[in-house]
């Protein structure tokens, strides 16, 4: 099971990244868990200074942007 995390306080871009990531995971047929991390201390623990960020299985993959659906599929697939 892939662990997908969206790091961000809940801003519009954070929400958009969460929606796109979920859509990408579903379209790929992945077995996944999606978690939204909004606590600033937890976000900073990943070394992330700009949100939104996407973390896949504990590894930060995207910082400060919302990639296209196709790009997210490549990142999480």
The name of the CATH superfamily reads Glutaredoxin
Strand ordering within the main sheet? 2-1-3-4
Based on secondary structure, the structural category is alpha+beta
Tally of distinct domains? 1
Average pLDDT score: 97
Strand content: 25-35%
Describe the structure.
The chain has 77 residues and is an alpha+beta fold. It has one domain: Glutaredoxin. The protein is 40% helix and 27% strand. It contains 3 helices and 4 strands. The protein has a 4-stranded mixed sheet with strand order 2-1-3-4. Helix 1 packs across helix 3. The longest helix has 17 residues, at 12-28. The chain starts with a strand and ends with a helix. The model has no long low-confidence stretch (mean pLDDT 97).
Quick rundown:
The chain is an alpha+beta fold and 77 residues long. The chain is 40% helix and 27% strand. The longest helix is centred in the N-terminal third of the chain and has 17 residues, at 12-28.
């Amino acid at each position: 099971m892939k662990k997908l995390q969206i790091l961000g306080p809940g801003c519009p871009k954070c929400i958009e990244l969460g929606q796109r990531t979920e859509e990408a995971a579903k379209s790929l047929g992945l077995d996944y868990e999606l978690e939204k991390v909004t606590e600033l201390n937890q976000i900073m623990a990943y070394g992330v200074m700009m949100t939104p960020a996407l973390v896949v299985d504990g590894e930060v993959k995207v910082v400060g942007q919302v990639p296209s659906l196709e790009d997210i599929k490549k990142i999480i697939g």
